[in-house]
Batch of 3 targets.
Target 1
Amino acid sequence: MNDAVFSPGSCWKCDQCAINHRSICRGASEEALRELGRLSHLRRFEKGQVIIAQGDEADLVGNVISGIVKLTNMSMGGHQNIVGLLFPSDFFGRAYADLARFSYEAATDVTLCCMSRHAFENFLGRHPDMEHEILLSTLDELDATREWAAMNSSHTTMQRVATFFFILSRRSDHVFCDAQKRHRMTNPVIALPIGRRDIAAYLGTTPETLSRNIQTLVRKHVIRPIDTNHFELTDTKGLIEHSGETREDLVSMSRADRPNEGFTDQA
């Protein structure tokens, strides 16, 4: 395990957690939340740090509090593929599995609410309501993965790019950092969590084609560049039209449980 900043569980208050109304903790009773508070601790990983390596003992589970985690799979030929991205409120790790099938890596600086897998499994045995939430979360993730796979196999590159950008706009905290200040934008901010080469591979295209599609969205005033990795979403309706999907299907793929507070959709 890579070194990380450790915060003892006694300092962590579940009732002050920014994502507990959207994570698996949303179904927890007061008793269960108190127990989770005793079992969990905060860990912070810098961008690029490996949280759980593929093939290692899967001894860590928990929720993403802030930042983005990428899941990668190393093929037999030594090629690394990005197979998923985890956003705040997503569950990471695998309960009831001894070894990790994928690597979990910090795509950005991340803060995680971590628990021992064995302790969490014992906790689920004492709290069937939380086991139910894990099942629902897993089924939601499976549905979103299937929808994403179907979209990737049948849609144009522009539709895949627009869908990906919509998902990022739903899962971002919409706070943009620059050298002078940290401020909240009027419109949603799309922050690219991984490099364009990795995004292109994830979307099944080339970096050049990805860049051309991004520039098309810029020229059509759907998005506005802030810097290389940040875009302001200025036309939500236009982005949905470019995706070839309905708004309902896009929201389902984004696994966003609540509308983005503080923003009015233009669709």
Target 2
Amino acid sequence: MRNRFLLLIFLMLCIPMSFAEKADHDKPIDIDADRADVDDARQISTFTGNVVVTQGTMVIRGDKMVVTQDKDGFKHGTAYGHPASYRQKREGLDEYVEGYGERIEYDTRADTVDFYVQARVKRAQDEVRGEHVTYNSKTDIFQADDKGAEKGVPKRVHAVLYPKPKPASGVDAAPVVEKK
């Protein structure tokens, strides 16, 4: 537990704040698949076969995607694949966040993406791996743990963090850390 907390703090300090494309939230969610089963009464849609979900710069790919909508209109999608993939451009940068897992859960209310089972999330050269990795696109914070691991078989998380280039002025820029 202490190692996970230290990893989270380290990631927050080492990575400059930049968020997912804000304009993506205003775009419609577009889903292509080989087949769709829509249950309007229960607000559940299931898409199967070469599923591609796009919302602005965000793209999720998988073999199957189940989308539910809550009473407030927010959507929750669960993609399945071997692996399923996620990619989204970061706000103001020519850079993407990419992630992979056998299951990916996307929550439009919380602006989070959860990757399960052999999860891997990359941002620039930095990479975090574990059985469960959460990416919050509002705060640009990753969390890794072993929630997707088999019961009784703890797994470790792994991160590779590269040093950031020094500013041209030769003065080290202090990392930006938000306090809640």
Target 3
Amino acid sequence: MYRISNKLLLAAFLLPAFLLLWTPACFAEHADRHESMHLEADQVIMDDAQQISTFIGNVRLSQGTLLIRSDKVVVTQDKDGFNHAAAYGKNAEFRQKREGLEEYVEGYGERIEYDTRTDTLNFFENARLKRGQDEVSGEHITYSAKSEIFQVDSGPRSANAPPQRVRAVLQPKPKEADTSPPAPDHPPITPGTISPLLNEHE
């Protein structure tokens, strides 16, 4: 075990996959899991025997367009070379570009767990997830970066406390502009028509 400090930018834990250079730019987000994981912190403790690294202080974890910021991150590498990162902080943050779109998914929680094998993130305690104008919140949110599907629950129930609620804000899609002219207040008068009242006096 050894210690490194003074804010280092580390390119570590290269996943066992080749970077797909032929992948079009619009699919770059799906290639995030094939990118190297970079970590920056004030201090790092690395245990090679257990394949566990602990990053402390202003931690920044990035992998392609994926970004996690927190006070502490513990990264564990399994025997196949995949990483599990657990980020801790009062306001741990997650951000990743959406596939083929110029917008991002953003997530928050007191603990964020990122599994590179399944490309899944879990947000715990005061968890929030924003996608475009939509937002959900709860005690636990599971988000699949592959499918962009997320599941929210209110956490474990207590016998002495009422169950917590899951909250969501879903914005309506903007309506298409109606280019047709407005309907007139009265039927239009066409040439050649005469009111029946005028015919009675002829």
